[in-house]
Design brief:
Layout: E1 2-11, E2 15-18, H1 19-22, H2 30-37, E3 41-44, H3 50-65, E4 74-78, H4 89-97, E5 103-107, H5 113-127, E6 132-140, H6 150-153, E7 158-168, E8 173-180, E9 188-190, E10 209-211, H7 213-235, E11 244-247, H8 252-261, H9 273-276, H10 283-293, E12 302-309, E13 313-320
Parallel strand pairs: 4-5, 4-6, 11-12
Antiparallel strand pairs: 1-7, 2-3, 6-7, 8-13, 9-10, 12-13
Helix pairs in contact: 3-4, 7-8
The structure holds acetyl coenzyme *A.
């Protein structure tokens, strides 16, 4: 038995902020951002929330899969920017969708979150515990970034992507390779709110996203090709046999470097980073859903999805569409 993706959906906030707009907020320029990252604009929430974006993407994925919300048995939201500490975004999305029969919970694996959700869902479905899953990557990173720090605020955007997974006898997930290295957690982090119990007398305000960009860059260009090669080896495929490599949209230069290391043409590495920036856990499902909507995915296509991010975490998944 395999596990396959039967429907996808994406949702972005209405408001678009281009690089020139950001140059009115921090000392930066369209030229610097485009050259270093490939980002031209990002979508930022005004009235939308992580939950509303997640529900919007999920509704489209269900429609695309031809499924009703009540049929969903497992609902996982990957996010680091939930609207509430509790309950989970997944439970709030469950209510908005009417997915009354689903077990709903969130996971936190930053930019690898969607792949971690795929990892979990594949295991649950293969074990026979659930027949299907609705996976969502949703973020409003604009509330986590320090809007006075030009080194980070220009990199991120808000959005959500979703996918429905079901058991399948034919095509689907062929292999996965996934990992974490907690010893490097400080490279990329965002502190929670300080404890203000009478013993701690915590001071200050909730933290912002802090990143050692060059360390993350080095980690990504080294780890992602190894992880992809490992997943391909498990699937018995070579990079030449892959139709598209969908990588986490963090930086165009990282994607180009991975393409070079795998000796593959850049055309096989679709990108939307110019339009969406880095939407963390939402980045892969948004890209996948947009490609599906554009009719760029055909039965039998072999896809590699690969992500990396805070934790540090990483993962790759090989699947036949
Ligand atoms: N505009 C103009 N100048 C800037 C900006 C900006 N927005 N940001 C930084 N600079 C300046 C710096 O101050 C520095 O100036 P200096 O030389 O006078 O000190 C100069 O540009 C170079 O800065 P670097 O940090 O060395 O720039 P670099 O080429 O490394 O690019 C970047 C920075 C884009 C962040 C890159 O390191 C990168 O993409 N790293 C990976 C980030 C990533 O992939 N994150 C994904 C995970 S996110 C998650 O998991 C939530």
């Amino acid at each position: 038995m395999k596990v396959r993706i039967t429907g996808t959906g994406w949702e972005l906030p209405e408001y678009e902020a281009d690089n020139n707009y950001l140059s009115t907020i921090v000392e930066t320029s369209d030229e610097w951002i485009t050259e270093r990252t490939g980002i031209r604009k990002r979508h930022l929430v005004k009235d939308e929330t992580t939950t509303s974006l997640a529900a919007g993407a999920a509704k489209k994925a269900l429609l695309n899969a031809g499924m009703k919300a009540e049929e969903i048995q497992l609902l996982i939201v990957a996010t680091i920017s939930s609207d509430t500490e509790t309950p989970s975004t997944a439970c709030q999305v469950q209510a908005l969708l009417g997915a009354a029969h689903a077990v709903a919970f969130d996971i936190n694996a930053a930019c690898s979150g969607f792949l971690y959700a795929v990892h979990i869902a594949e295991a649950f479905i293969k074990s026979g515990m659930y027949e299907n899953a609705l996976l969502i990557g949703a973020e409003t990173l604009s509330k986590l970034v320090d809007w006075t720090d030009r080194g980070t605020c220009v990199l991120f955007g808000d959005g959500a992507g979703a996918a429905v997974l079901t058991a399948s006898e034919s095509q689907g997930i062929l292999s996965q390779s996934i990992g974490s290295n907690g010893s490097k957690w400080e490279v990329l982090s965002c502190a929670g709110r300080p404890n203000q119990n009478p013993l701690c007398q915590g001071e200050g305000t909730p933290g912002y996203l802090r990143m050692d960009g060059q360390e993350v860059f080095k980690f990504a260009v080294k780890t992602v090709p190894i992880c992809i090669e490992d997943a391909l080896k498990k699937a018995g495929l070579s990079p030449d046999e892959v139709t598209y490599f969908l990588l986490h949209q963090a930086n165009r230069r990282i994607i180009q470097s991975v393409a070079k290391r795998l000796k593959q043409p850049e055309e096989r590495f679709p990108m939307n980073i110019d339009q969406c920036a880095n939407t963390s856990a939402a980045s892969l499902p948004i890209l996948l859903a947009q490609m599906n909507e554009q009719g760029r995915l055909h039965p039998g296509d072999r896809l590699v999805l690969s992500g990396f991010g805070a934790g540090l975490t990483w993962g790759a998944c090989v699947l036949e569409w």
